[in-house]
Amino acid sequence: MASLSCHQKSIIIVLTILVAGANAADIFLTWNVSLDTTLNPISVQQPVRHTQKHICFTYIGSLLYLSGVIFLIEQVITINGRFPGPTINATTNDFVHINVFNDLDEPLLFTWNGIQQRLNSWQDGVSGTNCPIQPGRNWTFEFVVKDQIGSFFYFPSLHFQKAGGGFGPIRVNNRVVIPVPFPQPEDDFDLLIGDWYNFNYKDVRRMLTNGPAQPNLPSLTMLMNGKGPYVNSSTQVYESFTVSQGNRASGKTYRFRVSNVGLRSSFNFRIQNHRLLVVETEGSYTNQMVVDSLDVHVGQSYSVLVTADQDLADYYIVASPKLSNVSNDPNSGLLGVGLLRYNGSSTNVSGPVPSGPSPFDMRFSIEQARSIRWNLTAGAARPNPQGSFNVSNVTVSQTFVLSGSNAQNGNGGVVYSTVNNVSYMTPDTPLKLADFYSNGSGVYTLDQFSTNSSNGELRQGVFVAAGRHKGWLELVLTNDLGSIDSWHLDGYGFFVVGYGFGDWTAASRFSYNLFDPVVRSTVQVYPKGWTAVYAFLDNPGMWNLRSQKLRNWYMGQELYLRVYDPDPNPAKEFSPPANLLLCGILHNKHQIHCH
Predict the structure, then answer these.
(1) Do residues 440 and 446 touch, judged by C-beta distance below 8 A?
(2) CA nearest 373: which of 384, 386, 383?
(3) CA distance 288 to 281
(4) 3-state DSSP call for residue 506?
(5) Is 20 helix (H, G, I), strand (E, B) or coil?
(6) How many CB atoms lie within 10 A of CB 56?
């Protein structure tokens, strides 16, 4: 095929955008990202011994020692002064423009958890695709929520910053011509839940990389929309939602978009005296399923419908961590508690916090996960039913078997997180830039590490694997550890075809659900277990595959999937943006892409 001129490429890009953007809107946002030391979701004061007789104060890291009492000086990352950040409220195929001003004292990027960035990994906002926004500078992300609907969230992707905040919800609504498979709710609530260090994120980061092999990390608290647990003695402010009962016989229905924006804990979500109707997860409408409680793993998002059909009163909203001996006492620490408040209620919440399933019952969790199926008859971003796209007769062209684990660097050294015993080392030059300008030369070597077995003793390097464009990838994720892991693939929604305990073997394929597996972008892997997904690699680019548990990701449990289409037609993959940032070995290079 003859090469295209910049002018021809520009015409193709414009035509592609016009077709994709029919009836779409432009959304322009300006974000000022800064640190706030006045927002302490949980107050922390710890008495210490002090021998001096006079009052004095000293700063050590993020701690203020004042007359024998430690006061935590926490730094919360805010957007436009808000924590959590503002909602991105879009409709299928809308164009989103976000001008990010970095007022932090370190580089910054945002990634858009579950937004597929069709043909455009240039906007993915991770270290392998973008140069960071330097302190005091700004940069504009521009992307289309192409052919997607559903509930997602964003967060800062560099330097352990997610532990400091900076996250917020993303809604992608259906176009009006495509019906939603449930009646319009009375209201729509975003509920971001996650565990939170009662400590400055920079100090926790320092403990991981410079401390002992197994650092004694600070305790965690479960926050709801950035607020501490109800009736916890350390909580500054708690989260509540007000609903109206309406007709007592049926009640009004409300949509809760629940996301686990936490650092390491899966949680069980429930509302006192109310049942949950599961209707959507990460852009897929599910077979509607009524549950008393729902397990939500790190990085996952769900929509549940809740009907206000109980007595006028206040009710507990609870998120309790999995694999943790947390009591139902809100003062116990890692127990998230908010309130569902009926309009007109004069009855305070009463009784104990409702119990959920045993946090150690992995059989309950895996059976619930298997029961979450794709709604084959509902339309989503497109008018044709979701079931038009299925995996019942696909031919797998690649299989990756990836083991998430830990490995220690020498006797008493730092414990790294690994994939097949490789701990990812972030190069100074983003992989996507190196790919475009030099075919990766000097930055990474494609397929240097095995994607099907261990790579021997601990190795550290730039792990990039080749994905076959428009081929089906079977991705088997295994977990050697005693905690629940959670994996995410940028650029795609994958079909979750199987879960299991023990070792995965070829015979495990006989247990796969190939009829109606749900499509999502983040999936859990149970302790000493495996999870299998299918992904159709029709989205060329450089895509991050990572553990969603922040410590694991930060310490190296990630790799990149390079899906390459040699056709230079920008309708197949977008050219670099005109405002592309250059860094690393390309810092002084003249930009040769089209404007």
Answers:
(1) yes
(2) 386
(3) 11
(4) helix
(5) helix
(6) 11
Cβ atoms of residues 400 and 474 within 8 Å: yes
CB 374 within 8 A of CB 518: yes
Q: What is the pLDDT of residue 39?
A: 85
Bridge-based pairing state of the strands 26-36 and 95-102: parallel
**Look-up: residue for tokens 């195929």?**
93
DSSP codes of every residue in 119-180: T-GGGS-STTT-PPBPTT-EEEEEEE-TT--EEEEEEE-STTGGGGB--EEEEEEPPTTS--
* Degrees to nearest 5, angle at CA 40 with 238 and 351: 25
Dihedral in degrees, nearest 10, Cα atoms 17, 18, 21, 22: -160
- Residue 320 contacts residue 288 (beta carbons within 8 Å): no
The two tokens of residue 581 are 């940032």
Q: Which amino acid is at 401?
A: V
| 3 state SS of 562 | strand
Q: What is the pLDDT of residue 13?
A: 44
Retrieve residue 81's tokens: 């002064």
Burial classification of residue 208, based on how many CB atoms lie within 10 Å of its CB (0-12 exposed, 13-18 middle, 19 or more buried) = middle
What is the pLDDT at residue 5? 41
Token duo for residue 53: 């007789």
DSSP for 407-471, written as a single string: EESSTT-PEEEEETTEEE---SS-HHHHHHHHTTTTT--TT-S-SSS--SS-EEE--EEEE-TT-
| 8 A C-beta contact, residue 569 and residue 540 | no
Q: Calculate the alpha carbon distances from 417 to 209, 421, 450 in Å.
A: 12, 8, 16
| Cβ contact 529:501 at 8 Å | yes
Spans in the chain with pLDDT lower than 50 = 1-20, 45-71, 594-595
Residues contacting 5, CB < 8 A, separation 6+: none
- pTM passes above 0.85: yes
Q: What are the C-alpha distances in Å from 5 to residues 44, 76, 571, 572, 585?
A: 61, 47, 14, 15, 26
Alpha carbon distance 439, 459 (integer Å): 23
